[in-house]
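Here is an idea for our session: we take a single protein and study its fold together. Once you have written the record down, we can walk along the chain together.
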Amino acid sequence: MGMLEKLCFGERWGEVVNNNSAFSPAGQEGETDLKEINRYTLRPLTADEYVVFTLDLCHNQIDRHFSCFPEDELEVIHKKVPGRPLMERHDLQGSLPRGTFFHSTLHRQGDILSVRPKVYVLRLEENRNFIANIEGGIYRETSIGFSFSFPECSICNRDIRRCIHVPGEKYEGSLCYYRMRGVQDVLEGSVVACGSQGTSFVSEVRTHILNTFGEKGWFMLRRGYSEGIDKSKAWCME
């Protein structure tokens, strides 16, 4: 794979917006959830066997690293989320998922368009602390692991890895950021604690990235991109 072909990373974007974990789903919505959930199970579940959470995974606003999703890319993500796993943090150690996304919607509030999926988590003893941390507001931010092919500069519309512009700088009064185009896959969603960031993998490739990209090294470092890193490891950079 060439240096400029693909970026894979995970980034905090949203938050847990709702849950019905205090009670079993009821009525038409609960029946619809149950039907959709059972599309992903090997045996039919009953409503008292799982918890449902609603998450905002990503949106169309400029983030803290000066990137954003165009709305048409959010449509792609929205279609790819169902069936993907929910993780507790981006984990490089091979931990198994905590839940599965089973439904997704596009939610608009003013100028903000977000991907808002539902996820089910089984009511198992091993998930007790995970569920409690979400309900208690400890895990209140969300993150998405995905890959995309083209970071488009907001100033010149070229690949920002090739142009002279730097995200976060202003040029003739216009803020430079990049649009994440060409979403190729959604790998997972994660629930994370506020303020958690970085992994051991980032520190391992820190020198390589900075040396390779020079003044833009910080940009690629934050994005967790490197040449020749296996996709299964690269996607969970934060």
Q: What stands out?
A: The helical segments are 27-37, 71-80, 128-135, 200-213, 217-223, 231-234. The two ends are 21 Å apart (CA to CA). Residues 7-234 form one domain. The first helix runs from residue 27 to 37.
